[in-house]
Amino acid sequence: MQKKNIISLIVGGMVLAIGVVVLLGVYKFNYLSGKTNYDVDGNEINQKQNKENQAVGDDRDKHGCIGSAGYIWSEDKKECVRPWEENKKVSHLISPEEFKKKLDSGKYVLVDIRTPEEFKEGHIPGAKLNLDFYAPDFKDKVSKLDKNKKYLYYCHSGHRSGQASKLAKEFGFTEAYELDGGINAWKEAGYKIQKSVSWYKPKPGISWQWQLDGPINTSYNVNLYDIDLFDTPQSVINKLHSQGRKIICYFSAGSWESWRPDAGKFPKEIRGKKMDDWDEQWLNVTQFQKFAGVIKARMDLAVKKKCDGIEPDNIDGFSNKTGFKISSQDQLKYNKWLASEAHKRGLAIALKNDIEQVGQLVNNFDFAINEQCFEYNECAPLQAFIKQGKAVLGVEYELKKKKFCTRAKVMGFSWLKMNYDLKGGRDGC
Asked: What average pLDDT does range 324-331 have in this prediction?
């Protein structure tokens, strides 16, 4: 009896297996001939189209794709696919190696779709756009990108970029490539990442002290101290930092000062006329490349001494009698270079005076320092900094406080009444 049961089970299993094979054969025949009612995703196919496909017959193309079954050749996937599969995504998943090759070609815009915090921790060099996938306005920002440009984009491991590829199709991008495995795969492939540099950004209304001569008076309860880069001992900077003060380090970027320790490094041919009221000579910023190394070394010293930012003085030579033909464009080029070099080092940078170019430089500089704009009735342009949430610091030497303090407060400026020598006294609004 037990032997018969075993035989019955075996026979039953064989019959079931034969049935499954037959069903699969029927499904395959129907699918390839266009008779099946569903595509590879289980979506129902129009019955009329099935009949039309069946009537056409087995018309294989040069790639072996069966047209009667609704297949076409995909150059991207190198295989026969359904039309709706070919058009399902406009973006393409590529390896880190392919991704880097396209990036190095310079023909693509690199987009990081991670959060700003992730971006700062490390991103692929060349990522100009950081569009946070989780931000409420992500979809809107993507829709405004130039659809005719070519894009490379990535996230952390590929999940977000996979979802973003649907938007690429929805918004009609012509060409976009997704990094397979995200930045994780990029790092595993041995490619470098770049960390974002951040720096101090003074806000409107902060209090400050400006002293460029004599032993620094560290007793003022202010947010920021502006002091000389060369003359201020490290111990003073450390003490001010321990008190919670931010430090801005002063040096001249547009004049030659004979007493500075690096004065001999400036070529004689770029030294011009003597400045009015000061024992300094204007520098020819049209040839700033000749002394760029000295200026960069000064910024490096500011980093070494742990300054939070810099105040490069005399960067308005184009509007003064320097002995050189310096155009406004020459000055803009030099000033923007200064800002770029400071930011590379994580230093905030002040736009010192140069009222005439505020509108063209407000986006490059982090705050402004001005002398006597109330006396000369030229404070209005500085409002551009306030509108961007950037501090405007300044002094008056001649006017009495009642002539400017109220107006300075209304405008959001941080103003002082000072003596010309800047030796440690302070009278704030």
From this structure: 98
Report the alpha-carbon distance of residue 143 to residue 129 in Å, rounded. Answer: 14
Edge-to-edge order in the sheet of strand 129-130: 91-94, 175-179, 150-154, 108-112, 129-130
- 91-188, what's its fold? Oxidized Rhodanese; domain 1 (3.40.250)
Gap between the Cα atoms of 253 and 312, Å rounded: 5
Query: Which residues are catalytically annotated?
Result: 155
Q: How far apart are CA 177 and CA 238, in angstroms?
A: 49
Residue-level pLDDT at 62: 65
Residue 24 tokens read as 């699969």
Those residues whose C-beta lies under 8 Å from the C-beta of residue 315, and which sit 6 or more positions away, are 253, 254, 331, 334, 335, 338, 351, 352, 353, 354
Angstrom distance (rounded) from CA 102 to CA 288: 35
Task: Work out the number of other CB atoms within 10 angstroms of the CB of residue 343.
Answer: 17
Distance CA 322, CA 326 (A): 8
Q: What percent of the chain has pLDDT over 70?
A: 79
Residue 46 tokens read as 């129009």
Residue in the block written with tokens 């699918």: 31
Domain boundaries, the chain: 28-83, 91-188, 208-417
Q: How far apart are CA 85 and CA 230, in angstroms?
A: 67
Fill in the DSSP letter of residue 106: T
Q: What is the dihedral of CA 173, 179, 181, 183, to 10 degrees?
A: -120
pLDDT tens-digit profile of 152-207? 999 998 888 767 777 777 788 878 899 999 999 999 999 999 887 789 999 999 99
pLDDT digits (tens, 9 = 90+) for 356-366: 999 999 999 99
pLDDT band at 10 (very low <50, low <70, confident <90, very high): low
The CATH class given to the 208-417 domain equals alpha beta
SS3 73: strand
Among 273, 272, 275, 223, which Cα is nearest to 248's? 223
